[in-house]
Amino acid sequence: MDKIQILDKKFKLFIPYEKLDAAIDKVASELNNDFKECDDVPVMLCVLNGSIMFMSELMKRVNFDCQLISIKLSSYEGTQTSGKVKQAMGLTSSIEGRRVIIVEDIVDTGHTIVELERILKEKGASRTYVCTMLHKPEAAQVDVKLDYVAMDIPNKFIVGFGLDYNELGRNYKDIYVLDEQ
Ligand code: IMP
Ligand code: MG
Question: Relative to the CA of 150, which of 19, 54, 57, 84 has its CA 20 to 30 Å away?
Answer without folding.
Answer: 84
